[in-house]
Amino acid sequence: MSRRAMILAAGRGERMRPLTDQTPKPLLKVAGHPLIEHQIRRLAAAGWRDIVINLGWKGEQIRQALGDGSELGVALRYSEEGWPALETGGGIHHALPLLGQQPFLVVNGDVWCEADFDRLRLADDDLACLLLVDNPDHNADGDFALQQGRVRNQGGPRYTFSGIGLYHPELFRDSPAGAWPLAPRLREAAEQQRLAGIHHAGPWLDVGTPERLHQLNARLSGAEQ
């Protein structure tokens, strides 16, 4: 399997305003460093050093801040979307020429997670393997059920999709150009019994609001003291 990864970083960050009015959300500082830098370092430490980042809102700032990635020990390439951005599904589809023909890892640009990415694996016919986490207060009903390593739309126990997954390019076959969300296609894969999943019980946070950004900053700053 290839060791290519993608960080989704093109969004506007509406819930994070006004912090994102002039700064893209991935560049907001956490413990003195941009959130996306923490993600890149975690990916690199796990052996994922060929990384694609999609650019949308204020994307030129991300390119300027990170460059080719050499200072972080990775090789960065960029998928330009312009504005408005292409949402999750459209953004990944647009980046496929940079991601290749082998399964690739995708990480939302606004999550913090200490999972072992290598636990994500595809069986022969799987289209994706999702990392699922315990339901936070803001998503109490969860997104999917997980039963013996298979992700289902119905039933239980139910968990929240972390925003981290291993995807086979086949998942995006015949998908349209332009903006579209990924979730409906994942639900189709679950209906086809081609969606795997693992449960991560450790630290995870959707850094989608100023309050959660402050929470993560306090946690990591305390850990570094």
TrEMBL record:
Keyword tags: Nucleotidyltransferase, Transferase
CDD domains from the UniProt entry: NTP_transferase_like_1
Domain Nucleotidyl transferase: 5-119
Protein known as: Nucleotidyltransferase family protein
Keyword hit for Nuclease: no
GO molecular function: nucleotidyltransferase activity
Pfam families found in the cross-reference section: NTP_transferase
NCBIfam families for this protein: NAMPUrTaseMurU (NF045761)
Top-level division of the source organism's lineage: Bacteria
Matches recorded under PANTHER family: N-ACETYLMURAMATE ALPHA-1-PHOSPHATE URIDYLYLTRANSFERASE, NUCLEOTIDYL TRANSFERASE
Organism: Natronospira elongata
